[in-house]
Design brief:
Helices cover about 40% and strands about 15% of the residues. α5 links the parallel β6 and β7 (about 195-200). The chain has one domain (about 30-330): Aldolase class I (TIM Barrel), CATH 3.20.20.70. It is globular. The chain contains eleven helices and ten strands. By secondary structure, the chain is of the alpha/beta class. The protein binds ligand PBG. GO terms for molecular function: porphobilinogen synthase activity; zinc ion binding. It catalyses: 2 5-aminolevulinate = porphobilinogen + 2 H2O + H(+).
């Protein structure tokens, strides 16, 4: 309980560095971070992404090096996103099912380089593979059809699992996909592969740089509002989370991050399950732009946002700052 001034002076415990350290309620460590990485074709290739300053696409050799770097820095997990070449994209996203696609080759290269020292999270959704940039299959009216899309997503997840993924992370927001993927993984003998559901994923304006990074931005017509959530909704997020947990998700994610910390807090308090947030590309770009404009110190801004995720209740955070933050934290 808090007494009355002057018996109680909350500034007492804040007066010195040692005391602030002693009373700190939350800590951020490299083990809290998941590092999203963009994969591209070629060898020895690093392509900077203009709308994501400081982030590049890497060819598979570079991806393996980044994974080794993650291990050195104490980052437990990397998340992979492929920049599929335009000639491998199609209306049905069939490249997602190719056992030799960019994603599968990247998974194997990381496993060869790092063994089980790093977790490999793979995104399940068709947007890196479709010619129209939507996450699923379209009917004639351009509507993303649910059940036929789920069938393809199951194939995509099994393809990633066979290549060696550790965490399957469906980001497509189709209804019923977690249960379908869980059942297929069980039947295929992958009982220990985890599912991290992008359970509360919003139709957000903060995904722009990501779409540039995977090459789907210029292709996308319309929006994703018929499957991703309305930013005005909170209760609906709790229903999404409840469903995905009942269908067999091991952990859940809220996305984007900082504008949705109220959702993180509600999810954590209601369900008491491993809860992650994705500090998405537009959030990262916003901090970079602010720092470049002289509006704040880049490192301080980044670390303040990351501890805020912990304070809100996150188990961990997907962030493009992962490697940089880990370096800062490791001193
Ligand atoms: C694909 C996917 C997206 C992101 C992660 N997976 C984009 C989208 O839904 O359009 C966004 C991540 C980011 O912005 O950093 N479904």
């Amino acid at each position: 309980m808090t007494g009355l001034f002057p018996d109680t002076r909350l500034r007492r415990t804040r007066a010195t560095g040692w005391s602030r350290a002693l009373h700190r309620e939350n800590v951020l460590t490299p083990a809290d971070l998941i590092w999203p990485l963009f994969v591209t074709e070629g060898n020895g290739v690093e392509e900077p992404i203009a709308s994501l300053p400081g982030v590049s696409r890497w060819s598979i050799d570079g991806i393996a090096d980044r994974a080794k770097e993650a291990v050195r820095l104490g980052i437990p997990c990397v998340a992979l996103f492929p920049n599929t070449q335009p000639d491998r994209r199609s209306d049905d996203g069939a490249e997602a099912l190719n056992p030799d696609n960019l994603m599968c080759r990247a998974i194997k290269a990381i496993r060869d380089a790092c063994g089980d020292d790093v977790g490999i999270l793979t995104d399940v959704a068709l947007d890196p593979y479709t010619a129209h940039g939507q996450d699923g299959l379209l009917d004639e009216a351009g509507y993303v059809v649910n059940d036929p899309t789920v069938e393809v997503l199951v194939g995509q997840a099994l393809n990633q699992a066979a290549a060696g993924a550790d965490i399957i992370a469906p980001s497509d927001m189709m209804d019923g996909r977690i249960g379908a993927i869980r059942g297929a993984l069980e039947s295929a003998g992958h009982a220990n592969i985890q599912i991290m559901a992008y359970a509360a994923k919003y139709a957000s304006a903060f995904y722009g740089p990501f779409r540039d990074a995977v090459g789907s931005g210029g292709l996308l017509k319309g929006d994703k509002k018929s499957y991703q959530m309305d930013p005005a909704n909170g209760e609906e997020a709790l229903r999404e989370i409840a469903l995905d947990l009942s269908e067999g998700a091991d952990s859940v994610m809220v996305k984007p991050g900082l504008p949705y910390l109220d959702i993180v807090r509600r999810v954590k308090e209601r369900f008491e399950v491993p809860t992650f947030a994705y500090q998405v590309s537009g959030e990262y770009a916003m901090i970079e732009a602010a720092a470049a404009a002289g509006a704040g110190d880049r490192d301080a801004l980044a670390l303040e946002t990351l501890i805020s995720f912990k304070r809100a209740g996150c188990t961990g955070v997907l962030t493009y700052y992962a490697a940089h933050a880990a370096r800062l934290l490791n001193g």
